[in-house]
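CORE FACILITY INTAKE
Project code: CF-77B
Contact: R.S. (postdoc)
Sample description: multi-component assembly, two entities in total
Requested service: structural model of the whole complex
Turnaround: standard
Below are the sequence entries exactly as provided by the requester. Do not edit them.
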Amino acid sequence: MADSASQSRSRDLDKLLLRSGNLVGPTFEPGTELRDALNEFVRVLVIGAGGLGCELLKDLAFSGFRNLEVIDMDRIEVTNLNRQFLFRLGDVGKPKAEVAAKRVMERVSGVDIKPHFCRIEDKPISFYNDFHIIVLGLDSVEARSYINSVACSFLEYDSDDNPREESIKPMVDGGTEGFKGHARIIMPGVTPCFECTIWLFPPQVKFPLCTLAETPRTAAHCIEYAHLIKWDEAHSGKTFDPDDPEHMQWVYSEAVKRAELFGIPGVTYSLTQGVVKNIIPAIASTNAIISAACALETLKVVSGCSKTLTNYLTYNGVEGLHTKVTEFVRDKDCLVCGPGVLIELETSVTLKKFIDLLEDHPKLLLTRVSVTYRGKNLYMQAPPVLEEMTRSNLDLPLFELVSKTPRDIVHVTGAAGKGDTKQSCSRKLRVVFKGMDVDMAGGA
Amino acid sequence: MAEPKVKYDRQLRIWGEQGQAALEKASICLLNCGSTGSETLKNLVLGGVGSITVVDGSKVEVGDLGNNFMVDESSVGQSKAEFVCAFLQELNDAVKAKFIEEHPVELIETNPSFFSQFTLVIATQLVEDSMVKLDRICREANIILIFARSYGLMGLVRISVKEHTVIESKPDHFLDDLRLNDPWPELQRFVETIDLNTTDAVAHKHTPYIIILVKVAEEWANTHDGKLPSTREEKKHFKDLIKSKMIMRDEENYREAMEASYKVFSPQGIGPNLQKIINDSCTEVDSNSSDFWVMVAALKEFIANEGGGETPLEGSIPDMTSSTELYINLQKTYQAKAEADFRDMEERVKNLLKKISRDPASISKANIKSFCKNARKIAVCRYRLVEDEFNSPAQPELQKYLIDEDHGTLQEANSLKVLPENTAAGLYILLRAADRFAANYNKFPGQFDGEMDEDISRLKTTVVGLLNDLGCNGSTLSEDLIKEMCRYGASELHAVAAFVGGVASQEVIKLITRQFIPMSGTFIFNGIDHKSQLLLL
């Protein structure tokens, strides 16, 4: 029964990409052109080369994508080896992105994976616009939020406030914890963005300081006392480093002393690490499940070869096996994926004044603001060389800097929020100059 | 810390050293190492299972390079089992890995005793006929069996074992065992030493909610003929009563007490799941009974006698606003009662063991203790023989899955009822129809290009015949879904294989560690829109 198809590397994928079907996406055009387009033109960015990232790179490489890039700031640790299957003991200490990319390229020929060993914030915003789709394999809310704000900043709306199709940067996001996980598709402007449903990720509960200081009851209270209070008392000025085993050992022994003092059981070294580093338990199987769902959705979003997930999948294997698809809805007033915050300005307002204004704007509360207009840097906080180059713009009227365009989109990046909760973000602003546009109300 | 302990740190936080030890003792056999099988095993090798045996008689083809990470160009034309096994060994040298170059289907036919040496068998990409035969073999030998299958955008995972019992089911949410509405004498005495009307503001705001709730529940009962609140109105009044005891607005402990008031109202005694277990005929223990059932028999006696309708006390309390001293003393009160209950249980277990002529010390204290702590959460999972499911699926369930009212109404086509699309159930029928098709035509529907139209019409006929045999006379599935199945042409897509393999390996871990609850029924992965489903047939 051997035929030519079985001699092809894309034997299995071809069934899906070359054959027509009725349960497919509206744009699906089966054929070798589609397969070749996936192979040659589609560029996919994977964020994170950890538990999900390793699986994602493999799954995407086998789903017809050959132009992949991966970004991760971490180095390989021994505790990764129970699930991050691209890494070996001898790789410990090396950058995850580089080793992961190399291993997948070694085994799947024809695939090109470009690694980026850096923080996601280190890349210019334009870097992210270079990809057709972004797949997120992250374990932090802050990083998801940042990438989401970047992808949403590319979104443009037409005069009727409908998103422009070609400006939509799709994202596929996965996350796991123990036996549970989620996968979702974010089509900015169409389906809810990460920020629209931020309530799905409730903030981590912290112990009140008075409990730690006065009425400890659990082992975790003793550990946090040693970590948050005792450390600073004993080491004036020295910052606690959770990755320094001596520091961890110190916190552990202080926690043990405190627990003994109060008769509280249960302080162990392992628990100390868990509490201090907020370790989320992680296993290979759940990461495999969630990554596979993300890779499959990436293939479907790009090729249209089947329906897609609308729009949020949860998986729970704790008691039996439960999967659930939920269709969340957009927050109409979302600051991140909406048409942008409207800012009305006098034509005389300087760039400096504009930046100050954003700090006080009740919806934005942005500090350390950098400003770009149509890809051009108007003012950059960093690196120093760019700061110096753009500094002279600060005293010029913004109206001049945008070539006297009466109304347009200006992108800003900076830190949002107050006090401890500040985080990097990107925001889109609809700047309108007063008195310059007769049809001003129309775009508001 | 030793290196393996560090390596497994993130999973030890889930299943502990006991779970890890069980994994390291397990001997696992994989049948067929295509991408579904390879991915399943990969997740288990990373986690550190004891030994693996890869059984596959096929040679690596070029097509395999497009979906299996464990083979590469150098392996084309050579034993797939050998190359997959070598790659898996590279992932974790603590695992004993070996391979057997033989076709699983032949092994099932010619050497059924082969399977008895394993803890668990993972059978991937087997067709119905081989599944049924292997299932009988493993059931006979009491070997845990799990099937995994990827087919186009769909997949199937099914556990088969006569009985799997779980003590540490570790549910996410479970009512704390606090006995607030029925305090035992020591707790009652402890509560009586505290005065809620104290004028000491610091003491007042550091009284743990357990004490507040026991006192308020007692007060309520005294004014309501000994009854607890049951209606919504009464529950609200109960909360108001708690609120009335506050002397300042910022008393976190009273706020916690109001939030936790449902712990007073929830029904006393044992829940329906546990009731079913203690009513099971296996509690009539004899010398062949497992340790689990001996302990359940002891539990049944305990509940009927000294337990007064309750299980042994769990013995732990959640964190709550409190002074350290009161909290620790409260904790000790709960632990002491749990310890006393454990000793009663231990006595009953010993007597039962004597009665069935077994060594009274053959069940360790640690095991009895763990059983007592988890008594309310124990679980028993039983699985039908695959053959029984295939030949006589539970009729009401099958009808319910296939004729899902949410998905539209029945339509007529060529005098056949077209079953509305509950896609997962439809895919289940289609996978079975595909196997029947393969048995008849020696190929899967749509396996080869250029024969699609003929295959679609043949598959349609097969579906109608199969549904007839399953008791759904005169029914068929939608044209779209039948065509979709032909489009898949028995392809094994990597992402689907990784999903299905991930599910299978997660279930294997639950089965081997005897922690958490494995899935029941037959899991159908629906890769079209992810509306997957567990079919209880």
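Facility notes:
- Chain A has three domains: 9-202+282-326, 209-276, 341-443.
- The longest strand of chain A covers residues 423-433.
Invoice: internal transfer
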